[in-house]
């Protein structure tokens, strides 16, 4: 990897900033001062220092993205993907942890850690996914009980139990606001679960994975790096 790319990806500054530091002769590779930004380094074995401080290579990276509507949860697609929203981290070979429908918003984790993705997505790991939704229909105690027993989707699959909470009901407009906690991620699952009880999801947003909540400061399309304690909240 180019030295300037490595340093900019690890928070040292823009490539312009890196060039300025190189001119000041404060960057070393394996204890030797370097002045060229395009030299190739091995991030896993070379010792890179800036002003005497070692820059540690991170083999895995975890990002929280507030996915906007209209973007596909995929690595490659004819339409704009969630990976297209991430800049400067191409060498990590990133992928989304699961999928949100194109018109669904909210919390999506982006990583290059395949084992982490498996652990989070496997129903056997019992990682909760929490959604907020607007519903065309009146959610009642009976609806809550139906979800608690699991519902049968249009293809005959019977879902695992879902923890449905009705937040508000507007009888004049025949609508409801809800939160739903599930541990699966079947294709269009939340929408299909409500269709199974003759209701329709008109707006859907994932707000939580495990015990990790979507950062309210992130605008749609914005993302941030997750710290280890936040990553642990998802695994938990």
UniProtKB/TrEMBL annotation:
**Top enzyme category:** isomerase
- Per its UniProt record, what PROSITE patterns does this chain match? PSI_RSU, S4
A GO cellular component annotation here is:
cytosol
Q: What range(s) does the RNA-binding S4 domain occupy?
A: 1-59
What molecular function terms (GO) are annotated for this protein? RNA binding; rRNA pseudouridine synthase activity
* SMART domains per UniProt: S4 (SM00363)
Xref: Pfam families: PseudoU_synth_2, S4
Give GO BP annotations, semicolon-separated: enzyme-directed rRNA pseudouridine synthesis
Give the matching InterPro entries.
Answer: PsdUridine_s_RsuA/RluB/E/F_cat, PsdUridine_synth_cat_dom_sf, PsdUridine_synth_RsuA/RluA, PsdUridine_synth_RsuA/RluB/E/F, PsdUridine_synth_RsuA/RluB_CS, RsuA_PseudoU_synthase, S4_RNA-bd, S4_RNA-bd_sf
Alphabetical UniProt keywords: Isomerase, RNA-binding
Query: Any keyword Isomerase?
Result: yes
Q: What is its EC number?
A: 5.4.99.-
Q: Which family does it belong to?
A: Belongs to the pseudouridine synthase RsuA family.
Report what the protein is called.
Pseudouridine synthase
Could you tell me which species this protein originates from? Macrococcoides goetzii
Lineage, uppermost ranks: Bacteria, Bacillati, Bacillota, Bacilli, Bacillales
């Amino acid at each position: 990897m180019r030295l300037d790319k490595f340093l900019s990806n690890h928070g040292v500054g823009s490539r312009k900033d890196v060039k300025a530091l190189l001119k000041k002769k404060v960057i070393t590779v394996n204890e030797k001062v370097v002045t060229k930004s395009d030299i190739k380094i091995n991030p896993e074995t070379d010792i890179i220092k800036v002003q005497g401080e070692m820059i540690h290579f991170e083999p895995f990276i975890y990002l929280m993205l507030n996915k906007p509507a209209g973007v596909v949860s995929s690595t490659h697609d004819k339409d704009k993907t969630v990976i297209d929203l991430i800049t400067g981290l191409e060498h990590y070979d990133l992928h989304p942890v699961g999928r949100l429908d194109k018109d669904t918003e909210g919390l999506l984790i982006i990583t290059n850690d395949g084992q982490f993705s498996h652990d989070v997505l496997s129903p056997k790991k019992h990682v909760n996914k929490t959604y907020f939704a607007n519903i065309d229909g009146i959610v009642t105690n009976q609806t809550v009980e139906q979800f608690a027993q699991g519902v049968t989707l249009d293809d005959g699959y019977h879902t695992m139990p879902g923890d449905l909470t009705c937040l508000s009901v507007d009888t004049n407009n025949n609508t409801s606001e809800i939160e739903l906690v599930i541990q699966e991620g079947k294709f269009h699952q939340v929408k299909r679960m409500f269709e199974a009880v003759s209701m329709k999801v008109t707006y859907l947003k994932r707000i939580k994975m495990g015990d990790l909540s979507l950062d309210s400061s992130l605008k749609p399309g914005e993302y941030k790096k997750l710290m280890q304690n936040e990553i642990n909240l998802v695994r938990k």
